[in-house]
Amino acid sequence: MLQQNNTTDFSLESQIEWWKAIVYSINDGVLVIDHEGIVRLINPEYTQITGVTPDIIGKPLKEYRPGAQLTETLIDRKCKVGVYRKTEDREYMVDMAPIIVNNRIIGAVSVCKSLTEVHKLSQELKKKGEKLEQLEKRMNSLYQAKYTFEDIIGKNGGLREVVYVAEKVSESELPILVTGESGTGKELFAQAIHNKSNRFNRAFIPVNCAAIPSSLLESELFGYGEGAFTNAKKGGKIGLFEMANNGTIFLDEIGDMSYDLQAKLLRVLQEKKIRRIGETSEREIDVRIIAATHRDLEQLVNKNRFREDLFYRLNVISLHIPPLRDRKEDIPDIVQFLLQSTEMNLLQNKFSLSYTIEKQTMNLLQMYEWPGNVRELKNVMDYATCMAEGTVIKTDHLSEIITKKSVPLIESGESPLNQTLQEAMEAAERNFIQDTIKRFGHDIDEKKKAAKVLGISLATLYNKLKRHKLHF
Ligand SMILES: Nc1ncnc2c1ncn2[C@@H]1O[C@H](COP(=O)(O)OP(=O)(O)OP(=O)(O)O)[C@@H](O)[C@H]1O
């Protein structure tokens, strides 16, 4: 029996008990034979794993278990590692070693590990892995980018060039900064880029940095660990960066992100690691970042409201989407495209309609300045198709704001609607200059010719281009 008090007993009997207790407490199965191959000891775990009961003790192993290789160890003196054994209902791995004292073999020991348990665990792990894969697939399908470059309509005013660059950089891993007024199609571009990249079947996670209060944005982006703060969810929360792993995160309105959070974003860009709030360890992530803003980031940098280092890091590839008023020639194609989408929607509801638009109505659409860009045009067309009694879109079907604020095209000869003379003259001058430049071309010699035809100096032409916000 083991000593119950604190005094140390060095008697042989006590020492044997001591070693036996150690062998019994081991989690692996242990069987020991002496130099004659007689079983001297097995622990309960050995019985558990192999089914061999303690009545084997004192008997020759070879007789009891003819397949046992342990007795060979007494002869060849070799250690054997990871010998696979399988009986009807058990599977286990055995390590064997001779017990040598003063260069004499006094026995051999076999240590076994159950594979049944390992199998069970690996089975469970497999199931969990499959579940995780399913969840990942579901998440990817929930966060799928639907637009491709085919959905980007138009080519005028520099849009063709932007599409060209965007397509080229799609497959690169570099961050992209998309700028342009609200409604010009920044997210549309981001989705198209994602869908053309190798990440197309992974998640595309859009985040509007201006729509989420800055106090919440950090935990939304990075997630948090359990107990990170009061009201924190049990088990913590995964952040959007982790959700976008292997995919793309679209950080819209990046100019509205707080200065502190900008520093954390810069770290993600540099280290490709994130740390959930309240946790100490970091997690590796592989996310492509596409940021967008309608603000002038350089100006924000100058005002110390946007980090210069982050700006340069994001601005490696920049795409500027021109406003719709600078590419009014695209309006007919976009209108056609929008009407077709409406038709497709109706078709899904079993209605088949084919819309046309009156020339006069189209003229009016091209006279308007579109401060809300393509999004506004989409809304106007949705409204018009609702208002139309038949399939022809007429001026009456446009909202009042369009009919009131449209400015005449030079060649249309339409009279201005509810405009002051000054406003109409300004609009006419803008359109006339725009048309003349388009007729002659963009380079300096062509502009000189345009200025001559307009009867103004080149300097005045440049001033007027600036005043009318014409980017040629
Ligand atoms: N060139 C285009 N061709 C077809 N549809 C377009 C085009 N540009 C924009 N759209 C459509 O206009 C709407 C607004 O686009 P999007 O949301 O991408 O703009 P945004 O610049 O990201 O706007 P915001 O800055 O307000 O977030 C979307 O429905 C989009 O599909």
UniProtKB/TrEMBL annotation:
Top-level taxon of the source organism: Bacteria
Residue span(s) of domain PAS: 15-55
Domain Sigma-54 factor interaction residue range list: 152-386
GO biological process entries: regulation of DNA-templated transcription
Keyword Transcription recorded: yes
Coiled coil regions, renumbered to chain: 118-145
Protein keywords: ATP-binding, Coiled coil, DNA-binding, Nucleotide-binding, Transcription, Transcription regulation
Gene Ontology MF terms in the entry: ATP binding; sequence-specific DNA binding
Name of the protein described by the UniProt record: Fis family transcriptional regulator
